[in-house]
Write a structure and sequence with these properties.
- This protein is an all-alpha fold and 69 residues long.
- It has one domain: Winged helix-like DNA-binding domain superfamily/Winged helix DNA-binding domain (Arc Repressor Mutant, subunit A).
- The chain is elongated, with a radius of gyration of 12 Å.
- The protein starts with 5 loop residues before the first helix and ends with a helix.
């Protein structure tokens, strides 16, 4: 929250909460926990490609939400 206001951080959390559960987990693990795609795939017991797909899809949704600010 050092880089964005608390209001924008709260809005980001709301947008993340609207994502499917798996996408929420992946975004939080990558962005907030700073895990690698490999580590996320190991923790979620899925392929790295699956993690990449969900992360890419989720980040596109989140970016489009940010553009509306």
């Amino acid at each position: 929250t050092d880089f964005i206001s608390e209001e924008k951080y709260a809005e980001l959390e709301k947008m993340i909460a609207k994502l499917p559960l798996l996408d929420q987990k992946i975004v939080r693990m990558k962005v907030m926990d700073a895990l690698t795609l490999h580590d996320i795939s190991l923790q979620l017991n899925c392929s790295k490609k699956t993690v990449e797909y969900h992360l890419d899809k989720s980040l596109k949704i989140l970016k489009s939400g940010f553009q509306q600010w």
